Amino acid sequence: MTSCVFCKIVEGSLPSEKIYEDEHVVAFMNIMPVTKGHVLLIPKNHRENIYDMTEEEASNLFAVAPKIANILKEEFNPAGMNLLQNNGSHADQSVFHFHLHFIPRFDETDGYSSNWNPKVEEFTQDRIKEIAVQIRNRFGQE
C-alpha cells in the first residue's frame, strides 16, 4: 500500500528509528511518544487490523513482543508496561496498518492513562455467562 505510512517505513522510503527488524516484522520508535521508550511493532505485510492477520503473521509478531518488552524493561526500568492495540476508528485506530504499542510506565504522571468504566449493572454474572457460551459455541466448544 503506497499511501500507508507504515508500509513506507517497511520499504525504507520514510525514515524511522528502527530498533528491530526481521523478515516478518519491524519495530521502531513512535514519533509521538507518550513515554520514554514508546515503541511500535508492525507486520511487514500490510494488514489493516487484527481481523486481517493470519495466525502465522500474528505468531511471528507476538514471538518478538516479549523480546522488545524485556529490552525496554532492562534499559529503562519502568514500573510497568502497557501493550496497546486498536482495531478500527471506533477503537481509536488512526493508522490503518496493524501496530502494537509498547508504552513503558513510570508513574501516574508519565502521560498515559487507561481508564475503565465497568458496566456492572448491564453485565451481571448471568449475562457474562451467556456471552461466554455464545463465544464458546463459535469455537465449537460447549
What is this entry, summarized?
With 142 residues, this protein is of the alpha+beta class. It contains 3 helices and 5 strands; from the N terminus they run αβββαββα.
- The ordered H/E elements are HEEEHEEH
CATH-derived architecture? 2-Layer Sandwich
Instruction: Enter the CATH topology name.
Output: HIT family, subunit A
Give the overall shape.
Answer: globular
Q: Catalogue the unreliable spans.
A: none
Question: Strand order, biggest sheet?
Answer: 1-2-3-5-4
- CATH H-level superfamily title: HIT-like
Mean pLDDT: 94
Radius of gyration: 18 Å
Which bin fits the share of residues in helices?
25-40%
Sketch the major β-sheet: 5 strands, antiparallel
The end-to-end span amounts to 41 Å
* Count of beta strands: 5
- Tally the helices: 3
Q: Please state the structural category.
A: alpha+beta
The level-1 CATH class? Alpha Beta
